[in-house]
Amino acid sequence: MKIDNSGSAVGAYASQSKLAKRDAGTQATAAGSAPTDSVEINPLASRISALATQAGDAAPSFDAAKVDAIKSAIAAGSFSVDPGKIADSLIASTKELLNQ
Prior knowledge:
Blueprint: H1 9-31, H2 43-57, H3 64-76, H4 83-99
């Protein structure tokens, strides 16, 4: 018994890729030269890229020394949390967001 794979999906895709290669070759010769690609960069994208680079060059947004001090205090068990100060900061932040 002979197995015919003409109905398989692989056979269908293989024939499509052969057609695509042939069509691409025909288009290239019809145009007279090889196709070329071009890219245009939006001026806004250039500005965003420049700003991102500047932001990366800026100082980190946190104080590493303060983080190390807090980490050491937590490890030593001497770090205390002032709930009133946290609540006041949360209220101030909320008021600022609501006023915008």
